[in-house]
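anyone seen this seq b4? input:
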Amino acid sequence: MSDMTCSDNLSSAFEACEKGMRLTREQGLALLEEADFLTLGRLANRARFVHNPDPVVTYVVDRNINTTNICTSGCKFCAFFTPPQKGGGYVLTHSQVADKIEETKALGGTQILMQGGLHPEIGARKTAELFTFIKQNHPIKIHGLSPPEVVHMARVDGLSVKDALDLLIEAGLDSIPGGGAEILVDRVRSLVAPNKCKTDEWLEVMELAHQKGLLTTGTMMFGHVETPAERIEHLDRLRKVQDRSLPRKKGRFTAFIPWTFQPANTALDHVRKATGVEYLRVLAVSRLYLDNFDHIQASWVTQGDKIAQLALLFGADDLGSTMIEENVVKAAGASFRLSQEQMIRLARDLGLEACQRNTDYTLVQV
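predicted toks r here
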């Protein structure tokens, strides 16, 4: 921390925002902790239109396919996983995955978000077989896995992360979602996800993916044991990777998606659930701090439609997925649903146009 007082940091942060200058960590923290709520929203909304001048809100039609719920990670925030030694676990067959894909395509879906647990016997090779099957028989964009899964699968097969990625990409992996980021600070990860990959490993997967031309997203699950300063550190680590990735022109983070921890049915159910105001503050600061990210996505799945609509005034320009199927957040007690028609209405009520997009944010011509 510099010798400046917090008030000075806030003043300089406002000045930086007004002039379109890059925020420092100290300024980002001052905005998060001290800024007037509505002023923060105004600044973030203005930044949103700097990055995306058109009055358009985007969304994608897809489904989350959880190929297995068997997981060795044992994350304290997860209500979905089943330990390998316990009954009740499943692994989807190729036929079951195919049925879900065909239903998705029939509903106008353009991609599947495919993730599973850290299954002790499923490595990169077995996953590549599934991807090859999908591409050969039921072709669709595979927005799949997460950095912890890639690291785990590489270890199962005795491969380097680089070689595991090459194998998965050759088999049909098109892009990587930002799952498993939680908070990119090892102190926090050791408390909530001790068996998951470390911060540097998560970032390494994404940077390697960018080098190989893949698009990815960045995420943050907040509102559990992290501090406000650690939230800013998380944003800073993502911004630095994006700085290195952008000059290569192809692989990069397309969007950032923050969402709040859902404590119900988890080992952290004693944690106070973050409020909608807290969510919007983090969202707004994310838009202002991540000056090299094109898009910020609202999390209606954890916040519901009203807060998601407000998010479109606090820096977000994307409503994410229609989520034909979603299992992980639902297991933690969140039951919000939002159809394509509802997304369009939320945008139009604000004087904005809603448009379906692909994974790379090109618009779908309908």
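The beta strands are 56-60, 62-66, 111-115, 141-144, 175-176, 215-222, 252-260, 295-296, 318-321, 353-356. The first strand starts at residue 56 and ends at 60. kinda curious what u guys think
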